[in-house]
Structure formats: C-alpha cells, structure tokens
Amino acid sequence: MLAAPQTADASPEPSTSADSTPTPTPSPPSVEDVQRSVEESASSGLEFITGTGLRVAVIILVAIVLTFVSRRLIHRFAQSIAEGHTKRGIISKGDRPQSGAADAAARTRRAQRSTTVGSLLKSIAAIIIWLLAVLMVLTELGFDLAPILASAGIAGIALGFGAQTLVKDYLAGFFIVIEDQYGIGDVIDVGEAIGTVEEVGLRTSKIRALDGTLWHVRNGEILRVGNFSQGFGNALLDLPFPYDADEQTVTTIINDAASALRELEQYDAVMLEAPEIMGVQEISGEAVTIRVTIKTKPGEQFAVGRAFRGEFKQQMAAHDLTVPWSQAVIRTMPNPTAASATRRAADHAAEKSDGESGGSSSEAAAPPKE
C-alpha cells in the first residue's frame, strides 16, 4: 500500500514557548509578612513618640508654662505701677487734701501707664519664648539651623550698627514710660523745647510750645527733663518796694494781696500754702526787691504768679506806694554837614551883629559938627 503524502496543513507549527521567559505570578503575602510589617511600623512610631515626639512635646509644654509664668509676673509688676509707689500731688501734713477730680485723674493716668507697660512687656516675653521654642523644635526634627543662624547673626550685626540710634530711642522711651518721667498734659523743659506734652511714644515725644510750635523730640536725645507738673509747684515772685517802705508795710501788702487772691475760687483751690517771704533778693538804685514764693498745685504756679502780681500792684496803690523808675535821656549826634552850615550861619550872624554894634558905637563917639 502506498502511504498518503503529508500536506502542508499537517506539518507541525514551530513552538515559541521555548524562546519566551515565563512571568512569575506574585504570591499573596503571608500572615507572617503582614505581622512583621505592622510590628516594624509600630516600633518606628513608638520610637518617634518616645524620642523626638516626646522631646518636641516637652519643649512646647515648657514654652506654655514659661509664657504663663512671665505673664503673671508682668501683671504683678504692672499692678504695682498702677497702685503707684510715688504718687503725684502728695501734700504734706497740715495742707489741704487733693480734690477728688485730681486724684481720679492721677489714678487714671497710672492705670493707663501700667496697661501700656504690661502689654509691651508681655508681647516681648512671648516673642522671645516662642522664638526659642520654634528653633528648638526645628532642631529636634532634623533641620540644619546653622546657615539660618549665621545669616541671622550677620543681619543682626548690620542692623545693630545701622539702627543703634533707633534702639537707643526705643530704650529711652521705654524707661520714660516706666519711670513716669512725664506724661500727656505735663509742662516740661527738655532743653531745646519747653511746653505741654501732647504725646509720649517709645521713639519720640511731641511737645506743644507756648507759641503753638509742635516739637518732635527723639527720646534718645533727651538728656534731662524738668517737669513743672509733678508733686507741687512754686510761684517765684520778685517784688520791688521803695526804700522808705518798712518791714511791716511790706508784710502787710504781701498778705493783703494773697488774701484778695484767695477770695477768687479758681485761685483758692490751687494755692496750697500762704506766701513765704524769703527776704531781700536785690538792692538796686531804684528799689529793694523782696523774693516771695507761693506753693501751688502742679502746673498752676504760672497762673497764680500772674494773678498775684496784679493784686500786688493794686495793694501798692492802696498804700500810696510807688516804685521809682529810671529815666534815660537819649542825645542824637547831628549831621556833620548840617552842623557845619549851622555853625557858619551862626558865625556870620555874630559878625554882622558885631559890625552893626561897632558902627553905632563909632557914630555915638564922633564929635558933633559945628
């Protein structure tokens, strides 16, 4: 028998399975792998909490405690300022007490000053504490702060040289407020400027002069302060008397002027003591000057002094006393040209007069003609 020939369809196809690499199928995680992963995560989390996390929490807790303690201490300090250890307007024993309005104004002023100082100190303390806390936390979290601190140090040095005047002004203003050297409404003398304080800032103070000029004075440039509105005032008066006025008359005139001034309510309320006669201040060719002082409430010495001088003048007139005054005679030098012309005219007139008188005398002396 003849065998059937094989066709092309019956020929076997070449196999490609031997040339390709089989892809491995991932096996599902076992229970041991899952348990091991959970244990590692828990271990790392517990290490963070007990290590870095705990230290960060402690830093934040300490910052909170320090902030609370500093605020309490600053509050007590501000309260002591509000109560006032050295009160304004204190009057010695035997003098008349302060009015309720003046005492209320002093309390209000101290309360405002204590509030300003307290808020400023609390802000400064909070900024310092939390700035240090943030730096410490960043260090615990692994941040490298060396470049930042180096840059901040260089910037601080540059600002220190450039803004040292500004820092000086702020420090001076801070101590002006704390020590209550002056406040709004006080009449002060700071050397270049004399007037009423309108604003007290940490950097500058605004002073209104008597002529209306508003002076802006840097606090760091104030070397001395004369405050006319603290404690009490003294009206300093130099009163002239004639030489023939005796001691009894001088005392009577001064006391009568003070009594007349006390009859006015506005001056009686601010005059704390009777006038004090200090004695002879000056002896001149015109009068004898007697110095008198009057103790007043702070800032009222100027008005009392002006009113007392007016009453003093009236009392002098009532006692028929006058103060001699010096008279000056002013002579002006004539114009040289005019003086020469006047002199020539006078000489010519004199010569003419002499000539006329000589002629008349010669006529009178001549013998009569026969």
TrEMBL record:
Membrane topology: Multi-pass membrane protein
Low complexity bias spans: 7-22, 359-370
GO cellular component labels: plasma membrane
Chain intervals with Basic and acidic residues compositional bias: 344-355
InterPro entries membership: LSM_dom_sf, MS_channel_1st, MS_channel_C, MscS_beta-dom_sf, MscS_channel_2nd, MscS_channel_C_sf, MscS_channel_TM-2, YbiO_bact
Major place of residence: membrane
TM helices/strands, residue ranges: 48-69, 119-139, 145-167
Residue span of region Disordered: 1-37, 88-108, 335-370
Domain called Mechanosensitive ion channel transmembrane helices 2/3: residue spans: 124-164
Molecular function GO terms recorded: mechanosensitive monoatomic ion channel activity
Domain Mechanosensitive ion channel MscS residue range list: 165-229
Keyword annotations: Cell membrane, Membrane, Transmembrane, Transmembrane helix
Mechanosensitive ion channel MscS C-terminal domain segment(s): 238-314
Compartments (UniProt record): Cell membrane
PANTHER family: MODERATE CONDUCTANCE MECHANOSENSITIVE CHANNEL YBIO
Similarity comment: Belongs to the MscS (TC 1.A.23) family.
Protein name listed in UniProt: Potassium efflux system kefA / Small-conductance mechanosensitive channel
Classification of source organism: Bacteria, Bacillati, Actinomycetota, Actinomycetes, Micrococcales
